[in-house]
RND superfamily putative drug exporter (Micromonospora luteifusca), 703 residues
Amino acid sequence: MSGRRATLIAVAVVLAWLVIGGVAGPYAGRLSEVATNDNAAFLPTDAEATRAQDLSSEFVDRQTIPALVVYERPSGITEADRQRAGADAARFAQVPGVLTPLPPPIPSEDGQALQVVVPVDDAEGEEIGSVVKQLRDITGGDRDGLTVDVAGPAGLLADLIEVFSAIDGPLLLVTLVVVLIILLVVYRSPVLWIFPLLAAGTSYALASVFVYLLADADVVKLNGQAQGILTVLVFGAGTDYALLMIARYREELHRHDRPWDAMRTAWKGAAPAIIASGGTVIVSLLCLLLSSLNSNRALGPVAAIGIAATLLVMLTFLPALLVLGGRWAFWPRRPRQDQADPRIEHGIWSRVAGFVARHARPIWLSTAVVLALLTLGLTQLGATTLGQSDLFTQRTDSVDGQEVINRHFPAGTGSPATIFTTEQTARQVAQVAQGVPGVAEVRPLTTGPQTGPPEENATPKVVDGRVQLEATLADPPDSDGAERALRELRVAVHQVPGADAVVGGFTAINVDTSDAAKRDQNVIIPVVLVVIAVILALLLRALLAPVLLIATVLLSFAATLGLCALLFRHVFGFPGVDSSFPLFAFVFLVALGIDYNIFLTSRVREESVKRGTRAGVLAGLAVTGGVITSAGIVLAATFSALAVLPLVVLVELGTAVAIGVLIDTIIVRSLLVPALAYDIGPKIWWPGRLSRANGEREARDAG
């Protein structure tokens, strides 16, 4: 192809992508419009809490989510405090989205607190955040020794919405800055960093369009967590693929005069590894569709769309940009056509390769032992459902308010467990429920407006032969104690003959979510491993190599979780990890960890065909060492950007992925895998033809 024609094609591709990016760009800032953060919306349809929620809709004209406004004065509530609470309640009733009439303020038994239950229309959705903000504005905060907080499920949801609102601004900005700094350090060029960053931004815009349209059509449910992961994943993985393509292009510029010819050869060499890597991540993420939790099922396609968009952009837009930039893009370190061996440019990694060759067996044995020792930290992991006070890395109004409730009221006030049972067995079920340890009070939902606690002998409301009971728990609704009480409550009421009891509520949602998360781990993790093994076998045309690669990544994953468990508990002071953490960490760490092994072993196989296995291992390590390490640092840094969101589960996930990627790139890919492959020799490609051909070649060389 002539240089003029190649340039015209590159210009056309660049202009087309710039137009696409311009059209798609605004959607990146609109994802929050179609996100939802209601835990109940993500439960399995067959979960007991979901069935309870469906039944509860029949007992009320409109579903509500309560905001609990609590007033505390340690010296005792005064008459002026009561008047203030009453005046606030009257103003609460005027807020759009608040359902009236409001029950009167509830005093605590110790006389030190008041509580106003404000039912907020559940149909408000994400606008619940603005409703709660208006409630907080009305209270005016603390005054003259009286503290005021807005807590309860609505207060918690409002605080979560505020946290996730930072995704469109601070998280994206921090991610961009991190990637920019690393690219400047890696390339030491005032020009070259523009290309991968522009391509990554285009990838994010393209992914945002598809995610927005699917979420808006209710095909997928997008939440703040998935949105944050999409941001860092696209920029992290996109920069990784760009680094690999640029490194191969630079190599070929030493062998070809024209940039187009260099890019064509570089594309043929790098694209298979990039496609295999991205395909592995996509398929692994799509395995989340097997989850019973809608939130997990949503994350899989959302993140997979991000990777697919990134692959498309990095294999078309980026090469066109590089062709147009030519050698000048690398200024001031422009590669010349000198037919230089690419290993010459990688002096440090050539020395690492030599070190591996001299001490292969001690290296892989010692690194494996170190990683195995780190796995001992898994005993400190403690996966559980994080309590409300443990969700955030900083104090929030909802957390402060819940602590006031815990001090002065039954901690489950405002978030009772709801029990649905037949009218004939309602009294017996209520008695059984009242006898469950951890249940403070059981009352029926009565007819008429709910302006306060029902009378002792009030007539229960009956709908289709069923009655709704409300069981107030003694412990906070998101605590371990409340979850134990909820499980015992279910066992007790399910045993009442003919009751057909169904137990739901806030605590039940947490319990069912935790149970579903454990089930998902047992189902999805084996499937992901099988899928990755098949992809590796097809790519490497061998069986032994994929098994060994998966084994090293699993060891790296376990070591990462062990190290993180120690850090979370003894450095960060976190009480544990959320029940969803192990699965998310596995999918990202294993899929991304395999990425770097694919980059390495695909190049090792290419070199082994020409040089023999052991020489191919050393050449592959020397050539890819720098670019893969740089890619790992980029991905680790981008996931670390999740720490800007003050949410423990995202800080933990970002930390785990960052640490895991660094372990993979610095220890597993740089030392363990090359040393193991070098020690095994040609048999690593068993039962493929390369294992026999290389074996014969190395036997002749030895002879």
